Automatic annotation (TrEMBL):
SUPFAM superfamilies: LexA/Signal peptidase. Its EC number is 3.4.21.89. It catalyses: Cleavage of hydrophobic, N-terminal signal or leader sequences from secreted and periplasmic proteins. It is an enzyme of class 3 (hydrolase). Catalytic component of the signal peptidase complex (SPC) which catalyzes the cleavage of N-terminal signal sequences from nascent proteins as they are translocated into the lumen of the endoplasmic reticulum. Specifically cleaves N-terminal signal peptides that contain a hydrophobic alpha-helix (h-region) shorter than 18-20 amino acids. Keywords: Hydrolase, Membrane, Protease, Signal-anchor, Transmembrane, Transmembrane helix. It comes from the Eukaryota. CDD domains: S26_SPase_I. Belongs to the peptidase S26B family. GO terms for cellular component: signal peptidase complex. It comes from Zostera marina (Eelgrass). NCBIfam families: sigpep_I_arch. This is Signal peptidase complex catalytic subunit SEC11. The chain crosses the membrane at residues 19-37, 162-178.
Length: 180
């Protein structure tokens, strides 16, 4: 009987080690993703170096689901550039084109006006009530490149949360059941 009990203890020990290995592996995957994200933030100079276009407001230049890569530096913002901005009270950043930049008299600050390429009017209705211009602190970054449609997965998971939970479940199951 002692031999059988030792065999069960040995099997339990192996399963526990396998489970612990899988949990550590999952932690390393998440840690690696965080390190890559922080590295992109440092390299790009932007708090959000990658964004997904969520609406049709920039068509035909950018389609819904395109991923934009952002960069932010000390260079002046110019009319015609695609920027991502965020205003107070809005959670989701907006991707639009700069249509006008004007210098504030007596300072080095500038006022920035944006508009979606596919929109009839400028973005003043999207700004905080009473705000008619953006300042540099509202700009998260300038678009320097894009991948078409790759971000559509993000849109689907946001609009239909069940897909997000299914994906997380499948990934967790794969990590926990893999042998390596």
């Amino acid at each position: 009987m002692g031999l059988i009990a030792d065999g069960f203890d040995s099997i339990r020990s192996i399963k526990f080690r396998d489970l612990l290995t899988q949990i550590i592996t999952l932690g390393m995957i998440f840690s690696s993703a965080l390190i890559i994200w922080k590295g992109l933030m440092l390299f790009s100079g932007s708090e959000s170096p990658v964004v997904v276009v969520l609406s049709e407001s920039m068509e035909p230049g950018f389609q819904r689901g395109d991923i934009l890569f952002l960069h932010m530096n000390k260079d002046p913002i110019r009319a015609g550039e695609i920027v991502v901005y965020n205003v107070d009270g809005r959670e989701i950043p907006i991707v639009h084109r700069v249509i006008e930049v004007r210098e504030q008299h007596g300072t080095k600050e500038v006022d920035i006006l944006t508009k979606g390429d596919n929109n009839e009017m400028d973005d003043r209705m999207l700004y905080v009530p009473g705000q008619f211009w953006l300042q540099r602190q509202h700009i998260m970054g300038k678009a320097i490149g894009f991948l078409p449609y790759v971000g559509y997965v993000t849109i689907v998971m946001t609009e239909r949360p069940i897909f997000k939970y299914i994906l997380i479940g499948v990934l967790a199951l794969l990590v926990l059941t893999s042998k390596e």
